[in-house]
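seq as requested:
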Amino acid sequence: METALMGDVALLRAWKVDTAGNCVFRYATKAFGPIMAKAATLTIVEAENIVEEGDIDANDVDLPGIFVDRIVPATEEKQVEIVRLTETDSEIESLSKPKNPAQEKRNRIARRAAAEMREGYYVNLGVGLPTLAVSFLPPGRKVWIQSENGIMGMGPYPTEDQVDP
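struct tokens:
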């Protein structure tokens, strides 16, 4: 077995932090924020909201303050590098009309994979073709999607008013 490597510094962004350093993360940050803080010698948390100690219910704490060395207020808005929104009906329809033979093959494979996804299935998707398969699920079919980075319960791309980095 390999010896674990400790990081010197973990720089995290939390949605809410109390003055004792207890952190609440949102979305994908819940999966990786606490792990990074626990693996570092020094943890600095940039907080979107700083509240008083006791304002965060203990059941909502994702990272206890014992792992946090510094808290700084966020001074910049979060940035989205590439905004990908939910496809409109016309965009979904355009998937059925591939632009080239390679895309036609990809769509055929993705359609077949989608046909295998039954109601209530838990599906681990990679990137590329597996992710494309979700686009071909019948409306109303409930399938639990695990993203390529291990986060369970991923859903469709957001609408413009739901975008949150």
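The two ends are 36 Å apart (CA to CA).
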